Amino acid sequence: QVQLVESGGGLVQAGGSLRLSCAASGRTFSSLVMGWFRQAPGKEREFVATISWSGGSTYYADSVKGRFTISRDNANNTVYLQMNSLQPEDTAVYYCAAATGPGSLRGRLSTRSYDYWGQGTQVTVSS
Fold first, then answer.
1. What is the phi/psi pair of residue 49, to 5°?
2. Which of 45, 53, 82, 101 is the most exposed, having the fewest neighbouring CB atoms within 10 Å of its CB?
3. Which parts of the chain register pLDDT below 50?
4. In this structure, what DSSP letter does residue 36 have?
């Protein structure tokens, strides 16, 4: 089992920044592929970013590429999502997710590719 706890969400004006954190416990963190997803009201949960177990490879949704950065600290069992130039359309509940087993990052763009989920943290961007 893996427990994931997100933090860092909040209310920010358009153009602002936030950094989300996700603390993991229960399994060797460095063996997990980690991802961030988001879900806006009335919409399906969508992929945002993913990072390999070592942190050496990342992959982003086109909608956030160049604005968001995913990173991880294996010594502290934490994955981050730095979000810059936030826009109202980024408003959503953001979820941290963990995936076990082999596979490429590009094969982990679906919610079905992840085995564990956090409870989510709300990000609201005002115009």
1. -160, 155
2. 101
3. none
4. E
Q: CA-to-CA distance for 36 and 120, rounded, in angstroms?
A: 10
* pLDDT value at residue 107: 84
Q: Is the dihedral of CA 103, 1, 39, 76 positive or negative?
A: negative
Look-up of token digits 């997100």: 6
Nearest-angstrom CA–CA distance, 17 and 113: 28
Beta carbons of 14 and 87 less than 8 angstroms apart: yes
What whole-number distance in Å separates Cα of residue 51 and Cα of residue 73?
11
Residue 112's CB is within 10 A of a number of other CB atoms, namely 7
Q: Alpha-carbon distance 85 to 56, whole Å?
A: 24
Distances (CA, A) of 113 to 59, 86, 102: 14, 27, 11
**CB of 124 closer than 8 Å to CB of 58:** no
What pLDDT, on a 0 to 100 scale, did the predictor assign at position 95?
98
CA dist list (Å): 51 to 14, 88, 118: 26, 25, 16
Do residues 74 and 28 touch, judged by C-beta distance below 8 A? Answer: no
pLDDT at 89: 97
